[in-house]
Amino acid sequence: MNHKVKLWWKAATVRAIKTVAQTAVATIGTAAVMGEVNWLMVGSAALLAGVLSLLTSIGGLPEVEVD
């Protein structure tokens, strides 16, 4: 696999994991205020955020320089 491709996947994956974690924390916090945490909702919102993060990364990542 090309070095640039590996670098892109690494950066995109790190970004997606951070996005998943941030979304989960926000969703859990909001649900806790409402009285009950719906873990299915937390999981699905976090997973969707991760997928959207990867798709957004296709547009380019500042961490990965373009020659």
Outline the structure in words.
With 67 residues, the chain is mainly α. Helices cover 76% and strands 0% of the residues. It is built from 2 helices and no strands. Helix 1 runs antiparallel to helix 2 (39-57). The protein is elongated. The two termini are 17 Å apart.
Radius of gyration: 15 Å
Biggest sheet overview: none
Question: Which term fits the overall shape?
Answer: elongated
Low-confidence stretches: none
Provide mean pLDDT, rounded.
88
Structural class: mainly alpha
Number of helices: 2
Give the proportion of residues in helices. over 70%
Q: Termini distance? A: 17 Å
Which sequence of SSEs, written as H and E, runs from N to C?
HH
| Quaternary structure state of the chains depicted | single chain
Number of strands: 0
Indicate the proportion of strand residues. Answer: under 5%
What keywords describe this structure?
0% strand; mainly alpha; elongated; single chain
What's a concise summary of this model?
The protein is mostly helical and 67 residues long. Helix content is 76%, strand content 0%.
What's the layout of helices and strands?
Blueprint: H1 3-34, H2 39-57
Helix pairs in contact: 1-2
